[in-house]
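Researcher: Go.
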Amino acid sequence: MVRVRPGEIGLAERPEAPSVKAQPYRAAVLFLILAAVAFVPFILAPVNGSVSGTAGSADHPNGLVSAGPRPLSGGVVVSSDPRVVRNATNLIGDGTFDAIPGPWIYTSGTTGAVTASRDPTARARLGHTTPVLRFDSMDDVFGATPWTAAVSNQQSSSNLSQETAIRTEGNGSLKDDVMIAQSNQWAGAIRDDPLPWNWSGYDRLAIRMDKATPGTLWAWVYVQDEAGGNAWGLFSLVTGWYRYPVDLNTPLDVSKVTYVEVAFAGAAGTAGTVYIDDIVLFNSTAFAESARVAQTFTKSTPTGASPNSLRLVFDLEATSSSSVVANLEVTIGNTVEWSETPVAQGTRTVEVDLSGDTALQATGSFTLAVSLRLNRTGWEEPSMTAWIDNVTLVIPGTLARIAVTPTTASVLVGQTATFTAGGWDTDGNPVPLTVTNWSSTIGQIVAVNGTAARFEAPTQPGTGVVSATQGIIRGSANVTVEPPIAVVPPTSPWDTMLWPVFAMLVSALGAAGFVAIRRSANHAFRIEDLFLINREGLLIAHTTSRRDSHGDEDILAGMLTAIMSFAQDVFQEEIGGLRQFEIGNKTVALEPSEHVYVAAIGSGPIRNRLSTSLRDFLVDIEERYGDRLQWWSGMNEDLLGIDAMVQLFARRERYRCGDWKRHAAPGTEPKAVATPEGPGSAIHIVIVPKEPMRPL
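Model: Structure:
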């Protein structure tokens, strides 16, 4: 079929490119029997296996609420679990956007290009998505609406075929092998359906083409309506896939389009191959406007300027920005409290300290608004969406707890260590510490800087407590002062003469001692399971040397937490804390810290070295992960490296502060340990002092 297009061909520029409460003692006995039944299958399982720790699920402590991953629009994937602090003094109504219509007011932009609405997943949605009409994906070029070859002269040729390997989307593309006989001739492909197409609402066509052969080729994209009105674009093709736009301007009637042609021209004798794919329509109208979601709230309690005396928290999810510049900001009244440009893609929790806003320190009515402004750039389809959820405006309560970090520390005699205090209310919100008094039962506090204090160890080993106090609220950390290790060389000629003999004697004694230690090691406590569990019973990490762990680490972790809680409730007047108990021939050693506790399960007598190792291990855990453990959602992606620390401790069966930096070997499995034979499954609870034991 030969089609000759009237008019002269012109040139166009290329386009831009997660407590067990004991009652009577009779119930306690029943509880212990049930615990034995639950524990024994795990503790007496075969040895020599290895199971990596995995996070379980449980209700979150201290009023923490997990929003959980919600279905996302636009193919965006949730990479973290948003968290928000619960507090009875939250000033924002329906911060979870569950109510319909609710207290929120949604205001779209002046032209409607940027919209604000309540998302069906119960979140606020702000953004713009350009409607796109896919005219032809080129997945079936010879189907119900086929493309046909067309040339301006029989001397030139156009050979069309369906391509499946080379494409930009879908299942295929249109391949056109053309030969241009003369410079004033063209060859290409046309689509001429029986009925017209209604493209109302769209003013730009975009087509992807790939010039797969060398040489110069021009592409002519021509669109025509029923009355002959047309729009066209001429492009110098480049090698590789590129997107080319055609503006559908007057005189073309976009409601009655009948004909689309893609033709190629070049110098006489030019032959080449061009692939065509993904012809789409969209609106190119420029815009620069904002949409917002807002709520007016009443603040009846004045606040001060102390850090975090007023705190805003919300969850934010955002897509990437395409052909737009995005600015997201949070305002209260006329004050911009937080803003971001460009808006980072992904899911996160944003916390804003509002204590510096003097207007907000007073009482009254205020309007909180979250606004998204989009400014269109480029010529392609613009899109960007942000979702807001779990909005809280928190006034922290009365100081209820002081936490001192690190919670346990080992310090060499004469050396120093720094401790830091933090205040919290009953809901887990941070409360500023105003006047903090530091004290120590061993050594002395040599310097205080606000909430931090420098401790100096005495010249003699021992154990004690470092405390921070404000009013009647006190927080403490356990301190172990370790002896120094020193070697003194000979200082006299006689010493020099006897030194080789002395060295030989030491070597012989060392060898004998080594043999004795090796023999006694067989009777020492051997770690078979090591659990790291948070204060609410949620398993963080677990490693085992047993062949069959039954895969129920979460049940075992919950039972450990239940037994600890039971012992504290029933024996609370007699003890300071449960440190170990026995089940059959197995012993469970426990050590708590501020956010977690570690449980070592194994065989043999427990020695002081194990207690020291457990404390040192928790010092490193709190130092490395303390801030994240406080609000931990149950996702191990938030605690990268913690599994390796647990495996390192279990493998070496000892731990000193900093070992994870010196010896960590990710992927190393704990060594196998033979299961010793023993009696049945009776539970023997052993109560030991809460203060740390003095090391050997």
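Model: Helices lie at 25-43, 493-521, 553-570, 608-630, 642-652, 659-663.
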